[in-house]
Amino acid sequence: MSDTGQAGCLEMKLCLLLLLFCLCHLGLTEDPSPGAPDVFDPVDEDEETEDTLHGCRKKAFSSEEHQAIGGAIEQLGLQLLENLPIGPQQPNVILSPLSLAFALAQLTLGACNETEKLLLKSLHAHSLPCYHHILGSLVPHFRHTSLDVATRMYLRPGFEVKLSFVEDSLARYQSRPVPLVSVEEVNQWVENVTNGHIPNFLESIPHDVVLMLMNAVYFKGEWQTRFDPQATSKGAFYLDSQNSVSVDMMKSAQYPLRLLDDPELEAQVASFPFKGNTSFLIVLPLPGRANVSSMLPKLNISDLYRRLPQEKTMQVNLPKVKLQYRQELQEALTNMGLGSLFSGPDLSGISDQPLRVSSVRHASTVELSEEGVEASATTVVTSMRSSLPLLRQLSLPLRPHRRRLLDPPLHGHRHKPCS
Ligand SMILES: *[C@@H]1O[C@H](CO)[C@@H](O)[C@H](O)[C@H]1NC(C)=O
Ligand SMILES: *[C@@H]1O[C@H](CO)[C@@H](O)[C@H](O)[C@H]1NC(C)=O
Ligand SMILES: *[C@@H]1O[C@H](CO)[C@@H](O)[C@H](O)[C@H]1NC(C)=O
Ligand SMILES: *[C@@H]1O[C@H](CO)[C@@H](O)[C@H](O)[C@H]1NC(C)=O
Ligand SMILES: *[C@@H]1O[C@H](CO)[C@@H](O)[C@H](O)[C@H]1NC(C)=O
């Protein structure tokens, strides 16, 4: 990053990338855009009493509440990073904890009993009141920044889903039910909402898949200070202390940057400002001293942001790269204690038929250029029946009704019908 021919590693830079773009956005939520259309209203009307009871139905949440959610998302991201294999096949780990949090949170809406507790715990949300309301309230907020979040729910025609789950997903996460027709259609949606950055996301969809909870995020940030394309030239980029590759290197002799040397973390931390109020955080382990695995447990991104010094101009070399990452997360999530999702979860808030999660897939991309950063990610939680349905199949309408016709609240605050 400085002119010292930084022997930091590419994988480190990039694995932290998306972590931070979610956080800097969460940091700017002090003034939740009063003009934001309240898309939740129609479905929410009949819930007013119970939500008001819990104080969750406020239009605007405080910045402390948003930051608490930001911290929870960060923890989820770091924990997942610690459990993902970093190997020669995929040296760069790029994750969007935000996308992952949306996917698991949506599943939590339909989870009951121990499964719900387990999911809330892994989301670091067990002690955060109104988690779903606050996380969901970020969706329209993001639309006013350079980050887009899109969600939807694919339902196999004929699959019996509980109306309350569909309604809650729509109310909290604006996730619309869509009939699952083909892998091509699903992939086309992902490609559309990631601005073409993630084509052909899924190879196939097994015929016994009945439900897919999906989201995608797309981010485009323009550097406050652009790099001059004329100055870009080939340079060595160190993957680790021994190996380097030749890449296009963007160069600036005087770049305004907040740079912190953190002796405890044994890393250099730099924040590149984007236009608007977001920034791009790079954490580079000091060569030969730290690595991804040794740093992760010590990393506290909100704390790093707080400690970054004032901006100074300095010489900067930044690689011009485009990277992508795809990963099935079942093993990492199992290592994190979520194995029961894949064997025998209680998803009775979704359907009376026993279901299990069959896959959680994540894909992400990031591209650094002279103008700025473009990044995208998508996550899908796929579920299938865990045994043959005993009941005669009965299809419910895919479009939810405005009023809840079935499933009145069972007990005061729980409107989720857990059988
Ligand atoms: C919830 O879990 C408890 C203990 O694990 C069990 O006794 C109870 O039957 C479960 N409730 C439902 C609705 O499955
Ligand atoms: C993708 O975008 C195209 C063009 O806007 C649109 O016609 C198509 O319906 C979209 N497909 C999906 C699955 O969203
Ligand atoms: C950035 O933040 C400042 C102060 O917090 C605010 O005045 C300004 O409107 C914000 N700009 C954008 C583009 O959000
Ligand atoms: C990372 O650093 C720790 C402690 O410094 C060391 O024990 C570990 O072997 C290193 N891991 C890799 C992959 O280099
Ligand atoms: C990160 O640091 C902030 C303050 O610096 C602190 O409030 C927060 O609890 C820390 N988070 C963790 C997980 O240690």
What does this structure look like?
One of its GO terms (molecular function) is serine-type endopeptidase inhibitor activity. Residues 78-408 form the Serpin domain. One of its GO terms (cellular component) is extracellular space. The structure is a single chain. With 419 residues, the protein is of the alpha+beta class. It is 31% helix and 26% strand. It has 14 helices and 11 strands. The strands form 2 sheets. Strands 2-1-3-11-10-9 form a 6-stranded mixed beta sheet, with helices on both faces. The longest helix has 21 residues, at 63-83. The model is unreliable at 1-53 and 388-414 (pLDDT under 50). It binds 2-acetamido-2-deoxy-beta-D-glucopyranose (5 copies). One 2-acetamido-2-deoxy-beta-D-glucopyranose (NAG) binds at residues 300, 302-303, 306.
Condensed summary:
It contains 14 helices and eleven strands.
Beta-strand content bin: 25-35%
Identify the CATH class.
Answer: Alpha Beta
Main-sheet strand order equals 2-1-3-11-10-9
Tertiary shape = globular
| Bound chemical compounds | 2-acetamido-2-deoxy-beta-D-glucopyranose
